[in-house]
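Entry for the shared binder. Reason: the reviewer on the internal report wants the predicted structure included alongside the sequence.
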Amino acid sequence: MTRKHDITLTINGHDHAITVDARRTLADAIRDQCGQTGTHIGCEHGVCGSCTLLLDGVPVRSCLIFAVQCVGVAIRTVEGLAQGDELHPLQRSFIEHHALQCGFCTPGFLMLAVGILENEPNISDADLRAALSSNLCRCTGYANIVKAVRAAADELRAGP
């Protein structure tokens, strides 16, 4: 018998009190129990990056971490990027630079890029490419994704 745990997850600044099995992944818990379906589940082995979100500002694969490990941690998902109707600069840039096609990998790339740019706003092109290569895209290739992230980085550094 699996033991259940009552936990509270803080997602995009809002608390979600849920009951989970000890081995329930964060990806499954936030999608199925917290209604945050923007985080996609792809490979469930930490390879594809579609489930990437931020834990205390650090990009992680949510399919590889248990929900019970995230109590007291600030979880940020793709739903937390836009401010009301105002898209985050990265979201706008992905649209403007045609950095998405089917969109399945997009939330993971957005969250990875936000984590990168917030932690290292002056990242070099080579380091940016290396970091983004950890996520997989089957449709668009990576040129427009890199272009979109670089354009957003420039915009974020320039300020409002």
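Summary line for the report: The chain has a mean pLDDT of 95.
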